Amino acid sequence: MHIYKNLTIIGTSHISKQSIKEVKETILQKKPEIVAIELDQLRLFSLLNPKKQKKLPIKEIGLKGFLFSLIGSYLQKKLGKIVNVSPGSEMKAAFNTAKKTKTKVALIDQDIRITLKKLSARITTREKFRFLKDLIMAPFSKEKIKIDLNKIPEKKIIKKVISKLKKDYPSVYFTLIKERNQIMAKNLNKLMKDYNSVLAVIGAGHEEDIIKIIKHVHKKRN
Prior knowledge:
The chain has 10 helices and 5 strands, in the order E-E-H-E-H-H-H-H-E-H-H-H-H-E-H. By secondary structure, the protein is an alpha/beta fold. It has one domain. A 5-stranded mixed sheet has the order 1-2-5-3-4, with helices on both faces. The protein is globular and about 50 Å long. The model is unreliable at about 75-85 (pLDDT under 50).
């Protein structure tokens, strides 16, 4: 958890029971004026209405974006079944707890269709082949990272994963991490101006960079 001025950020794991508990308890204890969530309208709707989940059309997000979405969704669901937690449960808990306490909610992430469309346009042939190679070689890799799926990954593990993503898949890193961090930081900065207390619930992989961006903006103003 990071606290900076009137902003509190909770870095979460999307399939962690620990994250669900922390989100609920922090909202109830801190009683923020507004809860900001790493979601857009489409993803929120899918979380709240899993049976009515809308499939993203290939023509809107591109073939590569569509395939990436399918793979990402499959992996999250597979890991979620291991710990008996549906992916995104902590975001759903943040929304429901905010509504229960009559706290305002802000969705601060970019529309998932825009993100995947950009990814489809930017991902390189080299990265696609690299992905296939990593997928095939993964079972034989000597480099293993031990993660307790019930808990939020340690910062050193998060940094290691992001560093590898940045090195091996630069366009994926830029589209899914860096660019979205800039968008979410901009939205949080606006909320910090408009509200006395802001509590943000975002994935742990975004937390540190978003805080840096916000601090840099405030430093430039001063």
